[in-house]
Structures are given as C-alpha cells and as structure tokens.
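[step 3/7] inverse_fold.run input=structure_tokens len=162
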C-alpha cells in the first residue's frame, strides 16, 4: 500500500484544510474504487468561527449566486492535520491488505463557490457512502464517511485475482 501526503506549498489560512482519499483494491465487484473521505458532522461554533470572507472565492460558474452554505461545507468536511494523521494511521493499520493507496493534500484556497460538498452527493446503485464509524471497534474520536462512485472503477472480471 502506498501512502502519499502532499504538504502545503504555502501557509494555510486555517488548520482544517486537508482532504483524504483511499483506493480500495476490490469493492462491490469493482477494482480500485476511489473513496473520498470526509467529516459528516461538525458543531455550529466551529462553523461560526471561520473568516469566510477570506476562505471563499468566486463562483465556478456564471449565473445565479451559489448557496454559500454548501461552499462552507467543503471546508467543514475537511480534516485538521492531527485528524488526517489519525485517520491515515488507522486506515494503514486496519486495512493495509485491502487498500491500494491513501493520499492526502491540502485544500486550495480560496474555495470556489458552487462546489458540491461530499455530504450532499446523492446515493444510488453506483454512488454510495461508507460510514467508517459504524464498523466495529472504530477507534477515532470523530466520525468519518467516504463517498465512492462505482462507475469510475473497472469491473472485476470473473476469475480475476486481486
């Protein structure tokens, strides 16, 4: 399993600024399924504490004004460096044989308005959510969900080995 942590190239404006993804070798009949990990909940005090005028940028598209609360969620779903390190350590210890890689990078600031947060992505037969905190013996002090898209992964061919 490969672990890649990309450090920030400049000073980050806030400590909650890291995204984490993992690639599962085989999952639901697919190979190399990329899962985007995120925090599904946060407290209102944290949300109110950020200098949003410095963290959010211009809309990604021209047209009606995007929902600023959705854009805020992009940051609120991210991890602090300490949370990122705890999460990577947990995944590497518990799922080393099942994961192809784990990667992390800082968010780009300012965050463009109009992006869809992972917590609002729809679920169906191809798009889904893994709720890590529901797995027995989950040790982290914060919940973590992962969003995946089975359409973006290759099917496992009958008889193919991992």
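[step 3/7] decode complete -> sequence:
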């Amino acid at each position: 399993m490969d672990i890649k942590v990309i450090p920030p190239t400049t000073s980050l404006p806030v400590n909650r600024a890291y995204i984490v993804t993992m690639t599962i070798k085989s999952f639901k009949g697919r190979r190399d399924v990329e899962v985007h990990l995120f925090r599904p909940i946060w407290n209102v005090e944290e949300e109110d504490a950020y200098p949003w005028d410095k963290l959010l940028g211009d809309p990604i598209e021209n047209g009606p004004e995007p929902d600023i609360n959705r854009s805020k969620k992009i940051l609120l779903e991210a991890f602090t460096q300490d949370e990122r390190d705890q999460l990577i350590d947990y995944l590497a210890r518990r799922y080393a044989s099942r994961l192809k890689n784990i990667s992390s990078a800082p968010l780009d600031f300012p965050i463009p308005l109009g992006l869809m947060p992972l917590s609002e992505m729809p679920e169906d037969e191809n798009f889904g959510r893994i709720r890590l905190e529901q797995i027995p013996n989950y040790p982290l002090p914060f919940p973590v969900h992962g969003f995946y898209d089975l359409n973006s992964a290759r099917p496992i061919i009958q008889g193919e080995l991992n």
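[step 4/7] annotate
The longest helix spans residues 81-95.
The chain is about 20% helix and 35% strand.
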